[in-house]
Design the sequence.
């Protein structure tokens, strides 16, 4: 079994990328975000263009992330439960690898498998690139590309997420734990799901699965 989890707004209480863009972007990144909300731009293209407005270095950005970002309750309990049961817990996120890995390392979970946007810092801004499971660059469908691979490998996939970009990959999974925008999307599309507030709820939910 694989537990495929989103990161921003799921593992964290806040969307880390929005926090960083609010602090460091030198331009109207919310105009780009509105284009994404209006389905005129993929989430991958949004992050690529929005973070190109950021000129700050990684340490400065990580400092802000550590100061402002809160983790959702119960994450360590979920990881411990997955290890105990032999479940493969991993993160597939449209967020940026450098802050996801740093945040996890800071709480002693640096060994968690992470698939996210690869980032490169340079003087012209932050370069963001999404590499799919086949090694090719993707501009959309990043999360579901990994979900499809896991299913093809024979895994039972349990999806955990919170946002609109989680709807497509979650719809492929055998079971969904949802909150916020993903919960709304599941209800709208009549997808069976289990609401959650924190990761202790997910541990309880996993114990009840057949």
Sequence:
């Amino acid at each position: 079994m694989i537990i495929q989890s989103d990161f921003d707004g799921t593992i964290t209480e806040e969307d880390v990328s929005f926090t960083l863009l609010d602090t460091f972007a030198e331009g109207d990144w919310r105009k780009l975000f509105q284009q994404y909300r209006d389905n005129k731009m993929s989430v991958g293209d949004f992050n690529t263009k929005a973070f190109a407005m950021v000129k700050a270095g990684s340490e400065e950005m990580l400092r802000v992330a550590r100061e402002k970002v809160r983790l959702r309750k119960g994450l360590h309990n979920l990881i411990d439960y997955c290890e105990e049961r032999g479940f493969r817990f991993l993160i597939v996120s449209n967020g940026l690898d450098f802050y996801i890995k740093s945040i996890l390392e800071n709480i002693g979970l640096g060994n968690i498998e992470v698939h996210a946007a690869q980032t490169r810092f340079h003087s012209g801004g932050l370069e963001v690139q999404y590499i799919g499971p086949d090694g090719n660059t993707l501009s959309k469908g990043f999360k579901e590309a990994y979900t499809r691979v896991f299913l093809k490998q024979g895994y039972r996939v349990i999806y955990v997420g919170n946002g609109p970009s989680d709807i497509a990959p979650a719809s492929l999974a055998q079971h969904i734990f949802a909150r916020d925008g993903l919960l709304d999307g599941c209800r709208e599309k009549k997808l069976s799901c289990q609401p959650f507030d924190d990761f202790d709820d997910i541990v309880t939910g996993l114990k009840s699965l057949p």
User: Anything to note?
Assistant: Strands lie at 2-5, 88-96, 113-122, 125-131, 137-138, 157-161, 175-178, 194-195. The mean pLDDT is 94. DSSP finds ten helices and eight strands in the chain.
